[in-house]
């Protein structure tokens, strides 16, 4: 049913339709509206056989989900930013134990300085934790990815993080087609765990593994991520067949076939980029766009294929490896022919808006060859110079 | 706790099972005990925690009629029982992290509830480090929500798995790797530490108890009693550690008994935040009897003024416990 709803509400309603059995709730901006919505839906009796648990921290939220999942229940939680870092130990643990937990990450910057607005530093901090990480382009996809996430997670026995840009998506009211219970039931079969705590067949889960077998365990995790390519693509195709719209998969492309310049990005900025590409195309520029939906596993093969004919690549990303550059750029560079120049465009940190004009100006100036490998969009150089000078003057004053 | 039977003149109820009716025998003495933590694990000789865990989980299994799931925190018990590909557990068992066993147990219990298997009970267990320090936030949350979990702390009073470092359950003056026996105040300092049973009581949970390996009937009875409640329950078991405390392994039970008899480890039960019973001390002894056999307290026995004063401070702690829980037995309850 088409609804005019807040992104968080759409996610909450769709998660409820996926019949979670244990939902762990702990508030953190900008994710909070999702667990609030689920709390209301559970209490109103719209989710059968569901335990909604108010926990005392994000670390507990994911730990409760770990226990529930190990005992055979479909478990869900949501977090953002500092919350993800606070549960970091459990994030790795859930993946190591192969528990198909689904978690929404309302993407937000990491402090200090404390900042509640959107960027992708939180997701990037957990990129090697062994989870599948899917990024939503808009609220429709945010909703749809959750339906796919439960199926992907349970098929692989691997946790899935659905990344939804904080505020830009979580708090935006848009039209979203929320499917019916029958549609979701037909797409997401009941959870059948691989290994479960069962009084009839006692097993020990989460045992100590020493040097003799640890490499093999990690290699199997690696194989699981490799297997996820097929599962993510298959589930996305099946979703299109069942629901009649595109969502998920590894990547999506926009006007790449004849493009000389190709921009790579992920998340909600794709909408702005599409508009900019349209404008540039009208002016006769051969520019295209690649939207990464699955950051883990990273779509190296797809990226390599799509970018091989490009003359120049711009990777727009909302996170920064300080002193190094872009996180996603490093992944892209590893995937492509070394001769194609790649420019990293750091944008949208801590909720800084990414205006179409700034992007357009950047692309224009870049084509004139005025940028190096790393560029910060709309950086206020005067502020930076002032602070650098002040630092030199004030060094040692705090003693 | 035990019904008012006098098992032997010393009142410590260590009577042999052969003199009892079948229904009075311990779970451990029964051929039908589930042997939840079976032989072949890698605990040290004389390990109090291994002994405590076997008695506790077997008793809980009996009380739950075999329908029990166990959650374990990281620590000695987890490490010595499950070196892959071996496991010593014959019950369904899960380990996740050091600090999250209570939360994992909450999740397991929730799963059982939504699956319509409310008769399957959950026991979570860990050492004093995971219970009083790193997992305390999760434990407090589990208590506060009154989740249907029995949490058992096997307290050996330091981080033994990592090589004997101080925890918030380490007693004053005890020497550990991080509170060495040197300087102005050798060993752990006075005026620090947490009393977890009292903190558990402050959460108003249905049942809290302390138990000792020296009185295994009482230990089993407390597990059984704990399992008769639903909601959050807490059992705190003192488990001596030969390595960490510095004593010969065959003294584990003797030290467990002396800890109780000197008053440093009071045995009591509480329901809904109120103390309902305390085990009387029938043969009181000075703290010296308990502390002297342990190398970690060697700094108390230098025979100088300073160490004498510190020993007196330890005695004062025991005396305060005896007063607080009214532990001194009279003829009536010690015959």
Overall mean pLDDT score of chain B? 93
- Rg of chain A is 22 Å
* CATH architecture title of chain B: 3-Layer(aba) Sandwich
The assigned structural class of chain B equals: alpha/beta
CATH homologous superfamily label of chain B: Thiamin diphosphate (ThDP)-binding fold, Pyr/PP domains
Give the tally of structural domains of chain A. Answer: 2
Concise account of the structure shown:
Chain A is of the alpha/beta class and 399 residues long.
Task: Name a few traits of the molecule.
heterodimer, A: alpha/beta, Rossmann fold, 7-stranded mixed β-sheet, 6-stranded mixed β-sheet, globular, B: 335 residues, alpha/beta, 34% helix, disordered N terminus
Report what the structure shows.
The complex is a heterodimer of chains A (399) and B (335). Chain A is of the alpha/beta class and 399 residues long. Chain A has helices spanning 7-17, 32-43, 58-70, 81-86, 88-96, 121-125, 139-156, 181-187, 214-243, 269-282, 300-307, 327-335, 356-367, 381-394; strands at 2-6, 22-25, 51-54, 75-79, 102-107, 132-135, 160-165, 173-177, 204-205, 251-254, 261-265, 287-292, 294-296, 312-317, 342-346, 374-376. Chain A folds into two domains: 2-243, 3-Layer(aba) Sandwich (Rossmann fold); 252-383, Rossmann fold, CATH 3.40.50. Chain A has a seven-stranded mixed β-sheet, sandwiched between helices. In chain A, helix 12 (327-335) links the parallel strand 14 (312-317) and strand 15. The longest helix of chain A is centred in the middle third of the chain and has 30 residues, at 214-243. Chain A is globular and about 70 Å long. Chain B is of the alpha/beta class and 335 residues long. In chain B, strand 1 (68-72), helix 2 and strand 2 (93-95) form a beta-alpha-beta unit. The interface between A and B is large, with 43 and 44 residues.
